[in-house]
Amino acid sequence: MLIRVATPADAATLAAISLKTFVDTFAPHNTAADMGSYTSGAFSEETQRRELETEGVVTLLGEEDGDTIAYAQVRHTPGSPHGDVELARFYVDQPHHGRGVAQTLMDAVEQHAIALGGTRLWLGVWEHNLRAIAFYRKRGFVQCGAHPFILGTDVQTDWLMNRTL
Fold first, then answer.
1. Coil, strand, or helix at residue 164?
2. Residues of the chain with pLDDT > 90: what percent?
3. Which of 140, 83, 131 is nearest to 106 (CA)?
């Protein structure tokens, strides 16, 4: 797998993989209306382009044989406490689960977070996404709180997890 930093020219590709992986992960557990309400804005090509152009945001694409199979996004806000960098998104396309793709992508995330000046990496993960929680724990993340995540009209709970870089 090749991992590279996405550019604004990748907005359509990022929109497609973002939408696919989000729907594959969460649609079985949520209503179509809530999913549609959230994804229509969150994963549009325009939204992805805007994020790719934002200073302090690095989006990584994992590619294999010309196909995007995974992506991650890290965000750093200058002056954030403790050198915090957010792992805002981290997804591997389901056919590639269990092949070490997530491990390789997380290694790249950590390198980019450090390059952004980070000393601590944090994320929010849905409390019912047990596969992701197990992976994050394996990578040294610990739960440090919770916050609401609004999916359409449904208020859900994301666990906050972090680890020192």
1. strand
2. 92
3. 140
Q: Tokens representing 44?
A: 């549009």
How many Å apart are CA 160 and CA 144, to the nearest integer?
6
Structure token pair of residue 63:
């590619």
Domain boundaries, the chain: 2-120
**The whole model's pTM is what?**
0.94
- CB burial of 55-84 (b: ≥16 within 10 Å; e: otherwise) equals eebbbbbbeeeeebbbbbbbbbeeebeebb
The fold for domain 2-120 equals: Aminopeptidase (3.40.630)
- For the stretch 31-79, pLDDT in tens is 999 999 999 999 999 999 999 999 989 999 999 999 999 999 999 877 7
Give strand pairing partners of 63: 2, 68
